[in-house]
Specification:
single chain, alpha/beta, Rossmann fold, 7 helices, 26% strand, globular
Length: 223
């Protein structure tokens, strides 16, 4: 079994957090899996402290106890690309902290599901130091699962995301489609074409307003 998996998406708002929560919920039925996010922007100020809403949603859905903020290395209030939010708030990301936080979770748990920020081409720091999301994925040594919409245009964005990752030497385990409707001939064909054009499987899908992932492959392929 590998030590973890990285969940990225074809873009912002494709449902990474929703899918990550359902994936962790399923994994935790059989292994000690935990959540991690290197950088979160767009946090809410609640009770005088920044609250990582994504982490709270995932941990609540997956039944992960403890303080969800502790599963996120960097939390920013501005709902912007991490590199810009960090610059405006004066707290730049350091790769060493991300590495240390991830390693600590690996030491305490069997498996870590890391959620990315935005799409795969996401600047995390862009000043005298340059850190892209793909740099973090490679530093952590993880393969990715790509969350994609199932609607019109998803073939293009799914294939581009997959091939960009592969061009940088990042392993692609497969796709999870969000808001999928198998009765829609276009969406079912999108699933087939994404697999045919990338050679990577659609592992599961989430129906609109669904509370579980529907697995098309054995979940053990992700471990």
């Amino acid at each position: 079994m590998s030590r973890g998996l990285f969940v990225t998406g074809t873009g912002t708002d494709v449902g990474k957090t929703f899918v990550t929560a359902l994936l962790l919920k399923k994994l935790r039925e059989s292994i000690d899996a935990v959540y991690y996010k290197a950088v979160l922007s767009g946090a809410e100020m609640i009770g005088g402290r920044l609250t990582a809403g994504d982490a709270y949603h995932v941990c609540r859905t997956a039944g992960i106890t403890g303080e969800p903020n502790d599963n996120v290395s960097y939390i920013y209030e501005h709902p912007l690309s991490p590199h810009l939010a960090a610059r405006l708030e004066g707290r730049p990301v350091e790769a060493e902290r991300i590495r240390a936080d991830f390693d600590a979770l690996c030491a305490a748990h069997e498996f870590v599901v890391a959620e990315g920020s935005g799409g795969i081409v996401c600047p995390i720091r862009f000043d005298e130091k340059r850190i892209m999301l793909t740099d973090i994925i490679k530093m952590l040594g993880l393969d990715i699962v790509i969350v994609s919409a199932a609607a019109l245009g998803s073939i293009n964005s799914a294939v581009l995301t997959c091939e960009y990752a592969r061009s940088l030497g990042i392993g692609v385990r497969g796709f999870i489609l969000n808001r999928y409707d198998g009765s829609d001939i276009m969406q079912s064909d999108n699933l087939r074409m994404i697999e045919a054009l990338t050679g990577a499987p659609v592992i599961a899908y989430a129906e609109a307003n669904g509370s579980e992932l529907v697995f098309l492959r054995d979940i053990r392929e992700l471990l």
